[in-house]
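Sequence only, no structure available. Ideas?
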Amino acid sequence: MEGDISVESHTEGLTCLSHECKPFEEVTNGHSIHKPATNGLPVGHRVKEQTNGNASLRSLPISALKQNGLLQTLAAGGAPIVAEESSELEKAREEWEAVESVQPAASEESVPTPLISFNEALQYFQTTDLGEHLRNIQPTVRRTGLAAITHFFFGPPRLHRELLEERDLVFAIAQCSLDNSQVVHMRVLQTIYKRLVGGRLDCARYGDHWENIGFQGTDPATDLRGTGFLGLMHTLYFVMDPETLPLARDIFKLSQHPTQNFPFSVMSINMTRIALQVLREEALSKECNRRQQVVGVLNEFYVATYLHLFQLWKTQQKTISDSGYVLKGTGHCTTTADVEHKVELFAKKNPKQMMRRLEVFLKEQRASAGPRGPSPDPQGQQGSPSLGGARTGSGSGSGQGSKEKQMHFTGVCELPPDMEGEARLI
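Reply:
I predicted one. Tokens follow.
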């Protein structure tokens, strides 16, 4: 044929072709049944002759043609172009090899952060320089004129001098913000989350998962403006004390209820705010003097306040629309602040009763649970004389009437709001 390409006319570049590519494959009806491979990939399958019908020439492996320069000779005849494909395959192979060479690093994040007890966290603050925060605290309510005279003669007793430093530490912690660079701060945050949800792995510092335990957004720090780090310290005490942990989980479970749900952590911070204000108004001074401690009394008062809210919320079928009514106790059931005010007024008026109710509740809880051995939780709170490890009753006797009062709080909202003029920690 005229258009046929003579193999003999291009033998200069094929001196080694017969050695490398023998034997030639059998060609039948212009089709090759040889399947050569280029770069490890099959390139041919019964390739039809495309140029001038030269079947024997088309049956040669592409690799052989490339090595012997025949592709350059056949370029004008429409030879396959493999250079671009080869470069892309080579690039892809290099990228894949690079991926394979990446080894998972044994980062610190893969190791769960150990839980931290309340005592350990408190010790951190006791050994930290809080001088700047101490200068900004307001440990007592400033009273002038007749109010000051009345409080001096008829008000609660003053806190003993030896307890002033411990009281000031509490208010200094309430001035501290959440610091991402402090390991203890992050451990406290992780411990609270793990103890509430029952998880073992750490969670991200920011994210929607914080809303699952009752914070308002993706960053818990934004909810601590009213109580500072003390808000987290109280929650830590709540979930790490073996006696109060079951109550904490019961409240958390109620906060997840389909209709009675409420933000657990935000409500906990509000309980801390109430406890701080009661301490500031010196309503806890008598109990602190009796026990010779401030931190332990305040912790229990915080739990007692949350217990009061929990029982009120559960027994009276409160919902989030009633939350303000329950906490404040005045006005109509419209906002969250109303619920807080109801609890706050009762707590200020009856701190001793609140703490005795907590004592009775925990005693009944222990009785219903039966005899218990040592706590299986190595991270549980350990009793400490300086922290009120052993709870002391605030009153004596407990009958059916006390239990009835414990479970039903009707009429509390009728308490006169005579403290509205008092200074409040916002």
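DSSP finds 19 helices and four strands in the chain.
Hope that gets you unstuck.
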